């Protein structure tokens, strides 16, 4: 990770926090910070990705703005996280897409929708888009099976490969050389537990400062709705593929079938999670927020909301003449989402997962070892006040 104005600012604030340590019980960041005496750009990137943006430390901080120290960890770490997504993106030239991500999301969505509609009309009789199709294989009479699965496989495969390459670059970049530890089952299990429960959005037990200085669990539950909704939609697709290839059962399936039930509940949870998170962003206290990233966050949440709502609408209109257009629109939105996945805020799931894994490794290694001694509090705070 390159040295930037943001890394210099994050280092200044971490040195103040390392002398203060008031927020030690809030999340994983402060104990991880306390293991370090100096902060390389790799350390700061790791700590920034470990931060879940709960804003607890900002609302508790006696040195937050308008204090001269100006400690605003959630805002600084959010900016640093965005810089790390661009730095480790694969291929590296695509990292520039993060800068104007809101515009890119709109453009790619428009192009993907147009491409799917044009392909459908070019390969089929255009009338099929507004003629009711029923019975086995109805969806594939509108968009051929080979085209639907081909487009989804290529775009999702590309997204997975690009994110895996980004993850590798991040893992090496945040702990170069001797800092790499072997990955063993115990830290993997700890990190998986932290990811699945979003433990670090608990604010040490009483919740986050979602909107202001009062504590709540809204953001944690909305994140859960989005994450588990996404996983249920993924389960719907894989069970549908299993039915098609191994049992010869072609969609559309009965409403009570596994793929439709997974997809329905997944879609509902995704709609609630994305709409709720958009609402939280519009009403939250703006000071501990990185404002220049808001456009891209709104754009990706809106795209995921549209993917889920069109999936649900497809279920509603699947036996009517509106099914063809709805299917093409839903597929176009899904393709846009896959293509943008490695270059959007959504990659935070990958980097945060790796940060939690590294944190679990460090916690395991620290057990029984003496904690690293922080620099003298008085000296650090004096230096910060002088700067
Ligand atoms: S109170 Fe402020 S300076 Fe102290 S650890 Fe928390 S965020 Fe850092
Ligand atoms: S914003 Fe929340 S998660 Fe991030 S460092 Fe502060 S207390 Fe920890």
Automatic annotation (TrEMBL):
Transmembrane segments: 104-123, 143-164, 225-246, 258-278, 298-317, 323-343
Keywords: Membrane, Transmembrane, Transmembrane helix
Residue numbers spanned by region Disordered: 367-387
InterPro entries linked to this entry: Citrate_utilization_prot_B (IPR012830), NarG-like_sf (IPR036197)
Amino acid composition bias (Low complexity), ranges on this chain: 367-380
Superkingdom of origin: Bacteria
Claim: Membrane is one of the keywords in the record: yes
NCBIfam families noted in UniProt: CitB
Protein name: Citrate/tricarballylate utilization protein
Taxonomic lineage from the root: Bacteria, Pseudomonadati, Pseudomonadota, Alphaproteobacteria, Acetobacterales
